[in-house]
Write a structure and sequence with these properties.
With about 600 residues, the chain is of the alpha/beta class. It folds into 3 domains: about 325 residues, ABC transporter transmembrane region fold, CATH 1.20.1560; about 170 residues, Rossmann fold, CATH 3.40.50.300; about 55 residues, no CATH class. About 65% of the residues lie in helices and about 10% in strands. The chain is built from 18 helices and 10 strands. Helix 1 packs across helix 4, helix 5 packs parallel to helix 10 and helix 14 packs across helix 15. The protein starts with a helix and ends with a helix. The N terminus is likely disordered. One of its GO terms (cellular component) is plasma membrane. It is found in: Cell membrane. Keywords: ATP-binding, Membrane, Nucleotide-binding, Transmembrane, Transmembrane helix.
């Protein structure tokens, strides 16, 4: 019993905290509109009851004067009633407009905060942890909850306050009337507000399934997957999978709502039957003693009280469900990244006199989240300043994972990575990233302008430098003059253009070249995989010229690039199996020599 009470109190506390967060966000996003909406909600709370009082006066005037007589009192009553009705409509329109403004600005504010927090994860831990990804998915759904919460908060607030004058009016007639009505509605209120809480519990249970459904939807609707989906005619099979996953997410919620609906309808019918008692009593006693106007007032108040409660339920259900979403958003916002871009009192990376960094790994151990087997177990490697190294090996050997560890995209489970003798785990990631230039294996096709693709947020780099870099990588046809740099690299934008796979790879190399001024370590992961053989050697040579005098690491399956570097390391299942110059490894006639011979024979044949 104690645990159930604690759980109930915890739920009420979380609900109140979520509503409090939403209110603070509303007044921060648009204080004027929020204040206006709040004022309109208060006015709307009393206007309906005031209109009922004026309506009673109007009915009494009509019943006393007869249908043919038109007196000053009747005119005043009619005008007053019309003014109150117009006032209700006007205030309702103002409330709707202000609430829309608040909702739009709140969604912008909380979406921006969520995006900023996602980018506070300066490693890839967020995108490689199913638990964190589930939390992110629920947080995205919670963003929409903020918008709906704007409507619900003002709607519920107005309805709650409007209950007061209606209850007072009925209390003055007979105190038991509002008590009977409210008691009859309590079960309906309780059952209705339980449903959204249970719905969100089901959403949490199916978060991983929902994420898989969203992945399939992305595959079926986005341009980057369109060619493969059509060539392999996989849309029907993928659609079947999507429908199956969508059903696994929505069907439990639909069954819950259906079960709840039957119970709610039964309780609502019983509640409505109870309403007969106060209405019958009013018809028998008030109409004969207090006049038609008073009876109409009481009858309208009873109906209004029920309508208010039902509207309150509609808004309240949305309020509870939206507050649950806000709670998930808040929970994700409280997750803490393992590392931050800036760290107080962090050691400064020493600058190497030759311009390149000496990087050493000691006892490196790393396992991907959810994986059973470690990628590295005690890996020890060193890269001398100013040297170039090629890392080769079969798929899954750990080549790309090693580069991710060296540039701080993932953190090792154990061991250290030292940069000119300083442990990089203690260094601010922002400083580390300023010393690195990277072309990743899966480079991004950003639908941005050419300038934005090259700068990636950097400032102070002149257009002439950007045009020079484009010429160096053979993309000078994209931009002959500075105004060409504003062309968007997407056919989905009017006036935009698209690139081939090889051109995108050259652009990724150009992006790294723009960032190369302060770089001490260059990491090229499959930098020529999308280039034709005629330009592969030329681009590889330019990359090594760009990094000359600084430390460079090249990951490649094309072993021709190994003839251009100072050192070759061959990995197999996370272990170094061969290490030396290209000529040394050929003389040893080991696995590397066999690979080189097979690949050369393929080209010769």
């Amino acid at each position: 019993m104690r645990e159930r009470l604690r759980s109930w109190l915890g739920g009420r506390w979380r609900f109140g905290a979520a509503v409090g967060i939403a209110l603070r966000v509303m007044f921060r996003a648009d204080p004027r509109s929020a204040a206006a909406a709040l004022a309109c909600s208060v006015v709307m709370a009393f206007l309906p009851s005031a209109t009922l009082v004026v309506q009673r006066a109007l009915v009494n005037r009509v019943s006393e004067a007869g249908t043919t007589a038109v007196g000053v009192g009747l005119v005043v009553a009619v005008v007053a009633f019309a003014l109150f009705v117009v006032a209700e409509d006007a205030v309702d329109l103002i409330l709707s407009t202000c609430t829309d403004n608040v909702r739009d600005r709140v969604e912008v504010l909380v979406s921006g905060a969520l995006i900023e927090h996602v980018n506070d994860f300066h490693t890839l831990e967020l995108f490689e942890s199913p638990r964190l990804l589930d939390g992110l998915g629920l947080a995205k759904a919670g963003v929409a909850g903020f918008g709906r919460l704007c409507w619900a908060v003002f709607g519920v607030g107005a309805r709650l306050v409007s209950l007061v004058p209606v209850v007072v009016l009925l209390w003055q007639v007979r105190p038991w009337i509002p008590v009977v009505i409210i008691v009859a509605l309590v079960p309906v209120v309780w059952l209705t507000l339980r449903v959204p809480v249970r719905v969100w519990a089901l959403k949490e249970q199916s978060a991983e399934t929902a994420r898989r459904r969203d992945h399939l939807q992305m595959v079926l609707t986005e341009s980057s997957y369109a060619a493969d989906v059509r060539l392999y005619r996989s849309a029907p099979a993928l659609m079947r999978s999507w429908r199956s996953l969508a059903g696994q997410v929505t069907e439990p919620v639909a069954h819950l709502r259906a079960r709840s609906m039957g119970l709610l309808v039964g309780v609502a019918v019983l509640s409505g039957a109870v309403m007969v008692l106060p209405i019958w009593w009013s018809a028998v006693h008030i109409s004969s003693r207090g006049g038609v106007g008073t009876f109409v007032l009481v009858l309208s108040s009873i109906v209004m009280l029920r309508v208010v409660v039902w509207v309150l339920l509609a808004n309240g259900k949305d309020l509870v469900e939206s507050a649950a979403g806000v709670g998930r958003w808040q929970a994700f916002m409280q997750t803490t990244p393992s590392r931050r871009a800036e760290v107080a009192d962090a050691p400064t990376l020493p600058v190497s006199p030759c311009g390149g960094a000496t990087v050493e790994t000691t006892g490196l151990r790393f396992t991907y989240p959810g994986a059973q087997q470690a990628v590295f177990e005690g890996l020890c490697l060193g890269f001398r300043a100013g040297t170039s190294t090629a890392i080769v090996g079969s798929n899954g050997a750990g080549k790309t994972t090693l580069t991710k560890l060296l540039i701080g995209l993932v953190d090792p489970d154990a061991g250290t990575i030292r940069w000119n003798g300083v442990d990089t785990a203690k260094v601010a990631l922002g400083e580390l990233r300023e010393r690195i230039a990277v072309v990743p294996q899966n480079f991004s096709h950003f639908p941005l302008t050419i300038r934005e693709n090259l700068l990636m947020g950097r400032e102070g780099i002149p257009d002439e430098r950007l045009l020079e870099v484009l010429r160096d990588v053979g993309l000078d046809h994209l931009a002959q003059q500075p105004c060409d740099l504003d062309v968007v690299l997407s056919k989905e934008v009017v006036g935009g253009t698209s690139l081939s796979g090889g051109q995108w790879q050259r652009l990724a190399i150009a992006r790294a070249a723009v960032a190369a001024d302060r770089a001490e370590l260059f990491v090229w992961d499959e930098p020529t995989s999308a280039l034709d053989p005629l330009v592969e050697f030329e681009v590889a040579d330019k990359l090594l010229q760009l990094s000359r005098g600084r430390t460079s690491i090249v990951v490649s399956h094309r072993l021709g690039i190994c003839t251009l570097v100072d050192r070759v390391i061959m990995l197999d299942h996370g272990q170094v199996v061969e290490d030396g110059t290209h000529e040394d490894l050929l003389r040893r006639n080991g696995e590397y020599a066999r690979w080189f011979e097979v690949q050369g024979r393929l080209y010769r044949n």
